[in-house]
């Protein structure tokens, strides 16, 4: 029952990993707080299912799946209710991932999500409505290279503390509309370098 599973499987040649109820693999993360880089660099991993794992105390998933460039299926429901604060580079370079349910992060006290979904070029939709980003100041590169996303609804997000939007939507080349809510203001933003670069189909900013 380790407090850290950081780097556990980093750069291994795993092709699939399943820790569901009834599976022979038992992964005890009940007391884990740090899961950073847990599967980072597992470039041959195509399927990862952690639905049988309970990880209610995890605070750090920085680069947890960074470089999992072959992964097509990812179940991260194990983080349901966890007080995730750091998800920097969490899904960086998951370029084959077409669908991702991040509802397990709903209400988590996120502080850092720099480049969280950077390079997730096959994602066609992403529901971020339940994220609490009210503490986030740097929103750089969050959706950089999400070139298959067609719409983004940020209307439920509180972005009043954000200061940096550099590369946030850079190379979102299929994006046609972005919906901002009244709490996603730019009053404190000082850096918008390349924010909407290469958003060639973007016709609506609300």
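Q: What amino acid sequence fits the structure above?
A:
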């Amino acid at each position: 029952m380790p407090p850290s599973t950081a780097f556990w499987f980093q750069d291994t040649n795993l092709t699939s990993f399943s820790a569901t109820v009834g599976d022979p693999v038992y992964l005890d993360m009940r007391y884990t707080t740090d899961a950073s880089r847990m599967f980072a660099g597992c470039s041959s991993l195509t399927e990862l299912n952690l639905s049988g794992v309970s990880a209610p105390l995890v605070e750090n998933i920085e680069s947890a799946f960074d470089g999992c460039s072959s992964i097509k299926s990812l179940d991260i429901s194990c983080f349901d209710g966890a007080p995730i604060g750091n998800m920097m580079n969490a899904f960086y370079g998951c370029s084959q991932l077409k669908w991702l349910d991040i509802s397990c992060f709903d209400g988590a006290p996120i502080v850092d999500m720099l480049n969280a979904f950077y390079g997730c070029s096959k994602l066609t939709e992403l529901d971020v409505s339940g994220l609490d980003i009210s503490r986030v100041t740097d929103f750089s590169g969050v959706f950089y290279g999400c070139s298959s996303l067609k719409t983004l609804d940020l209307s439920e997000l509180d972005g009043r503390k954000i200061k940096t939007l550099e590369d946030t939507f850079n190379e979102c080349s299929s994006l046609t509309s972005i919906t901002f809510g009244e709490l996603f203001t730019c009053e404190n933003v000082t850096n918008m370098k390349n924010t909407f670069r290469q958003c060639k189909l973007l016709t609506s900013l609300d």
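Q: And what stands out in the fold?
A: The longest strand covers residues 151-154.
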